[in-house]
Amino acid sequence: MKRKSIFFLVPALAFSLAACTAEQTEEGDLPDVDVQGGQLPEYDVDAADVEVGTDTQTVRVPDIDVTAPEERPEQPEPPTN
């Protein structure tokens, strides 16, 4: 049991020693940005021709006969201690 507790205690101790504090010393400002016109890039795309359709086919499926197993006589439950 002591060995397992070491696996939890060591990482917690290491985390507490590595923790640090940070304080803000100066306010930040966003930069001034001037946006002027622009142009989006142009693309010439030749898409593939795809033909989609339906087709009727016959699939042969094996015939399966299922026979229920015969009922087993009830067995007494084993004793519990």
Topology record:
Elements: H1 2-18
Structure description:
The chain is mainly alpha-helical. It is built from one helix and no strands. The radius of gyration is 38 Å and the shape is flat. The two termini are 30 Å apart. The mean pLDDT is 81.
| Principal-axis shape | flat
Q: Count of helical segments? A: 1
Return the average pLDDT rounded to an integer.
Answer: 81
Taken in chain order, the helices and strands follow as: H
Number of E strands: 0
Tell me about the largest β-sheet. none
Low-confidence segments: none
> In angstroms, what separates the terminal alpha carbons?
30 Å
Into which percentage range does the β-strand content fall? under 5%
Radius of gyration equals 38 Å
Helical/strand content category: mainly alpha
Helix share, percent: 10-25%
Main attributes of the structure:
81 residues
Give a quick rundown of the structure.
The chain has 81 residues and is mainly alpha-helical. It has one helix at residues 2-18.
